[in-house]
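Researcher: Go.
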Amino acid sequence: MPITSAPPLSVHEAQTKILERIRPLDSERVPLRDAAGRVAAGPVTSGLDLPPWDNSAMDGYAVRAAEVAPGSELPVALDLPAGTASGQRLPDAAAARIMTGAPIPDGADAVVPVEDTTGPAGEGRFAEIGEKVRFDVRPQPGTHVRRRGEDVGRGAIVLEPGDVVRPARIALLATVGRAEVLVFRRPRVAIVSTGDELVDIDQAGAPDRIVNGNAHGLAAQIAAAGGLPHPLPIAPDDPAAIRRAIGGALEHDAVVTIGGVSVGPRDHVRDALRDAGVELVFWRAAIRPGGPVAFGVTAAGRPVFGLPGNPVSAHVTFELFGRPALRRMAGHARCFRRPLRGRLAEAVSTRPEKAYYLRVRVEPDRDGWRASPVGAQGSAILTGLAAADGLAIVPLGVGDLPAGAEVDILPLEGWAPEVEAP
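Model: Structure:
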């Protein structure tokens, strides 16, 4: 059966066909400052012990535990602020004033917090060198001592392949002396916009023309998904011009086309993709908005997404199909936003032969989440999309739903965890 006459796929079927053909890109070594949000492509080991020496976990006094009991007094022999050189020795029958992070002096085996002591200036106040401090507790050996390497030992793996380099992991990598990290490369994504009616933003207000807002919105979506967007010049609705645009775009890691993918007399994208040697894997999905959506792969295995021209359709179809693919290319195992479960704030009218993705505002409710549809749901209504932070999903085969019906809600703002499968 020709692919253009095949029945439209469900969202799950389409997503499965896409991810079957997607592989992570090659790797590159980047400075730590550029690694946030990237995915580790190889293990990273610690170059240091962490902590690098036995040190104090509290502000207080380093002591020999056997010399301290409630009511006992010791003279202060050393002052050890953070940054003090290690290797100092605590004299017998003495205490060392010590700050958090300072090295434990040789001979000491415990730290007593200052609040459990009394100095000449009063309870919980530090004594000076030569003054005596009275202790209110009996410490055990090891009390409030952080041992060398107890967090990470030299040579231990601190980042596994597939780990996302989050801010806390960057802090760990820097602390153990790793200034670079091997990560999967970010996909370079060409954006090919088609349409005689389109102009660039600097021509806003031109008669009978509309600004190519889709390219700007999709560039932002691509960047948020971990890709590097490369918008190309607008191609007019001319077969030769579209072939040239697509031919130039195929040198990128992935291509997203906007418009011209349906069956109208001026829709030339599918023919141009075929002429460029792109294998069309599917065309059409049983969804609204965004039914006329295409996916193909080049001979080199690079993905090509043909998105509809209506702005909401382009946004939603990229969210459902393009975003997971780019995340997989960037090395992520978890490519899909995890749906929330909530209730519709009002009744919705849909048709059972399609799955509907309704723009909604998501708010916490006493029973979980409440999804309130935002304005008209037409595929050209940008204000509703701009106001929405989620998509309420009415599955294929369901149809109309009353207010209060339970639905899955796909968050759009990244405030829910990612999952491996849709």
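Model: Helices lie at 11-19, 167-175, 213-224, 239-249, 269-275, 311-329, 382-387.
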